[in-house]
Amino acid sequence: xxxxxxxxxxxxxxxxxxxxxxxxxxxxxxxxxxxxxxxxxxxxxxxxxxxxxxxxxxxxxxxxxxxxxxxxxxxxxxxxx
Length: 81
What we know:
Strand order of the largest sheet: 2-1-9
Order of helices and strands: EEEEEEEEEE
Number of domains: 1
Number of strands: 10
Number of helices: 0
Distance between the termini: 26 Å
Largest sheet: 3 strands, mixed
Shape: elongated
Helix content: under 10%
Radius of gyration: 17 Å
Strand content: over 45%
């Protein structure tokens, strides 16, 4: 799933938008367009797991876990090691 997120650079205080591919990988490497420094975005703290009950043709299926992310307005980045 691709999602456009607002990121804040760890090196300079500027924010920028980046389209990230959100998968089961919990860290994504990005590059600030202003200072040209690489950073890491950790998605793990924003991952929420919810249980939902689904009904198909009148039959209740077991509760299945749906993975979703709840992102803040601006995601912080950290220095790439």
